[in-house]
Automatic annotation (TrEMBL):
One of its GO terms (molecular function) is ligase activity. A zinc finger (TRAF-type) spans 101-144. This is RNF41 ligase. Gene3D superfamilies: Zinc/RING finger domain, C3HC4 (zinc finger). The gene is Rnf41_0. It comes from Tachuris rubrigastra. The lineage of its organism: Eukaryota, Metazoa, Chordata, Craniata, Vertebrata.
Amino acid sequence: MGYDIERFVGYVNEGLLCSICRDVLEDPLQAPCEHAFCTACIHGWLVHHSNCPEDRQVIDVSLLRPLYRYMKNDLNRLQLHCKNREYGCEMVCSLESIDRHERECEYSQIPCSNAGCTVQIERRNLDGHLAVCEYRSRECPNGCGYTILSAEDTQHNCVAELRTELELLRAEMICRVEEAKHEMESRLDSQRRHMVQKESILQNEIEELKSQISRLMSDVRSLMAAERQHRQELEQAELEKREL
């Protein structure tokens, strides 16, 4: 559907009206026959028809094109009232900027931001409504720190809320202690395995050193025995020399 023509200030060219809804074009498309339509209007029309609603020429969605630039410029320059005129907004601006204004308009009806509240309020009055809304949240006046809704004041029990909070904190603390315990056990187990592995390596190295020392001692004994044998042979040769 297009923009209600009654919202516009001054004359609106016939060529800027939708050929289906007869309101001012909104998000316009143009057929090869140069008739223009609101996008929503022509798409809805083509669900049940296959021709132009003005001259009955055959058209298809694939044949629709954006509005000519000069027509688009004329459309954007049109002046119209804000849709919140009935609530007191007196703004008149171009069609090109109307959406931006209406998104921020102080007279727009918006929902209350408090959960459970169904009130629709003008944007400019929202702060005042939030201050008295029965669904507004606030901190308990008795100092327990619990955030309550005004509608729940009669059911709020500080002792019960604090007890619940204490139980939650206790459960969280137990969980954290268990996590720390498991982490420490995991670290100790890892260090224990590392030390056992290192001890095994050192033990193997010690055994290898013992084996090397044993071989060296055996070699030393063999050398000492050979030396004694050699000395005895020298002494024997000396005796034989003397006898000769």
